[in-house]
């Protein structure tokens, strides 16, 4: 899922963990699913940000260029205003957009 098109709130939201953990039956397992997805989103966001900032990278240290690089500042501000990866992951989990499986539970199915 594209994190830029997420409908996750930009601020912290209180969630009912018992309701969230109804699928897994375990609050800690649900938390781990959301946290692992948040880590994936974080890596993706970081790679995108670094790729965009490399376009404007200056390899000579000129004092004027440091203060005049508005493009990098605007890109950084855009990424700062995006919802945090944990909020995006929690919203994806609530919307059933995350696929997960527990190998320990799947052993009993054989």
What does this structure look like?
There is one protein chain. With 110 residues, this protein is mostly helical. It has 6 helices and no strands. The mean pLDDT is 84.
Largest sheet: none
Task: Look at the structure and give the mean pLDDT.
Answer: 84
Unreliable stretches: none
Number of strands: 0
N→C terminal distance: 32 Å
**Backbone structural class:** mainly alpha
Number of helices: 6
H/E series, N to C?
HHHHHH
What's the alpha carbon Rg, rounded to whole Å? 19 Å
In one word, what is the shape? Answer: elongated
Q: Percent helix among the residues? A: 55-70%
Q: What proportion of the residues form beta strands (DSSP E)?
A: under 5%
What is the gist of this entry?
This protein is mostly helical and 110 residues long. The chain is 59% helix and 0% strand. It is elongated and about 60 Å long.
Write the layout of secondary structure elements.
Elements lengths: L16 H4 L6 H29 L7 H6 L1 H12 L3 H10 L8 H4 L4
Task: Give keywords.
about 0% strand; 6 helices; elongated; mainly alpha; about 110 residues
